[in-house]
Specification:
Layout: E1 12-13, E2 17-18, H1 19-24, H2 29-32, E3 42-47, H3 51-61, E4 68-73, H4 78-81, H5 94-115, E5 120-125, H6 134-146, E6 151-154, H7 169-178, E7 183-187, H8 193-202, E8 208-210, H9 213-217, H10 221-228, E9 238-240, H11 241-255, H12 258-272, H13 279-287, H14 292-305, E10 311-313
Parallel strand pairs: 1-3, 2-3, 3-4, 4-5, 5-6, 6-7, 7-8
Antiparallel strand pairs: 9-10
Helix pairs in contact: 3-5, 11-12, 11-14, 12-13
């Protein structure tokens, strides 16, 4: 919602939807199936540990609006990949991962045969384990493409590198040249116009860039990059940071289960507060609030004390 307010991104990948929980329709799953405000831009991102649950989850989301299904093979958070999900799909026997991809692609193909509507299969991945080889990485991607994957988003770091060091963008460029029949998006260290331009220069054959954490810090980042990469047209954008913060709280209350409000608010403001003069103080205030009402009071109080932080001139 916050990003769309400023013109939005071209595509929105959902949070990772845990396929087994989706299949059993636990108490929170209905929230993961919400597709507003622009359902035509949604990509349903699935995570899971085996082919059966991933295919069953695909059968549910394929009935929804959107561009298609994304298989997460890139999350390196220990609580994800140590269970057999996320980047662990790159570390399993290739035959096991291939069987999962085929199972999900079969769901998409059957849906297209019934409805006449094509939905894309995509994968987000990394380079693999720390001791990965070029042959192993590109062979893995060859397998994905051979089984109907039409888009690969590459975060060109290994499992343990996480966010350390610079992304090895050259692998995204090599992948795009190796498979011109699919789209390649590049992810990692894209924070502003300058870094977006740098990534695009390093990967000129990429069809897109993916942004994650910085979209929370600066929900206007897509508008900023879009404007910065074209000739100055004389337009300007100024953001009311207070109103955006308050709107975010309202969106959380409307679109998340109450049990998630606290963690979602903390996660957002741990990035968003970096925009402000006394960001560390502001962040600590919002990470330690006791009620939603108190959170709103702290937001209003900060901008009353620091009025110069309220209006942010983007361009």
């Amino acid at each position: 919602m916050a990003v769309e307010k400023f013109g939005g991104a071209d595509e929105y990948f959902t949070e990772m939807i845990h396929a087994p929980s989706l299949v059993t329709m636990g108490p929170y799953e209905k929230f993961y199936l919400m597709d507003g405000p622009v359902p035509e831009k949604i990509v349903w991102q699935l995570t899971g540990t085996n082919a059966q649950s991933m295919a069953a989850g695909a059968e549910i989301v394929v009935q929804k609006n959107g561009i298609g299904i994304d298989l997460n093979m890139g999350c390196s958070a220990p609580q994800i990949y140590k269970t057999g999900a996320g980047v662990s799909w790159m570390l399993k026997p290739v035959s096991e991962t291939e069987a999962m991809v085929k199972a999900v692609k079969k769901v998409l193909d059957e849906c297209e045969a019934q409805t006449g509507m094509h939905k894309r299969l995509s994968v987000k991945c990394r380079l693999g384990a720390d001791d990965f080889s070029d042959d192993g990485f590109f062979s893995f991607c060859d397998m994905l493409v051979a089984n109907g994957v039409e888009l690969i988003t590459l975060h060109p770091r290994t499992v343990k590198e996480k966010l350390r060091g610079l992304p090895r963008y050259e692998y995204a460029e090599k992948l795009a040249l190796r498979h011109p029949e699919i789209n390649v998006y590049v992810n990692g260290e894209i924070r502003d116009v300058q870094s977006a331009r740098h990534a695009m220069e390093k990967v000129p054959h990429a069809k897109g860039i993916m942004i994650a954490r910085m979209a929370a810090q600066k929900p206007w980042i897509f508008a900023q990059i879009r404007h910065g990469l074209k000739e100055d047209d004389g337009t300007s954008l100024t953001v009311d940071a207070r109103e955006l913060a308050l709107q975010f709280i309202q969106d959380i209350q409307e679109r998340q289960p109450k049990e998630f409000w606290r963690t979602r608010i903390q996660r957002f403001f741990s990035y968003y507060c970096d925009n402000f003069s006394f960001g560390h103080y502001f962040k600590m205030q919002l990470l330690n609030y006791h009620s939603t009402e108190e959170c709103l009071e702290k937001i209003n109080s900060y901008f009353e004390k620091c009025p110069d932080d309220r209006m942010i001139k983007v361009y």
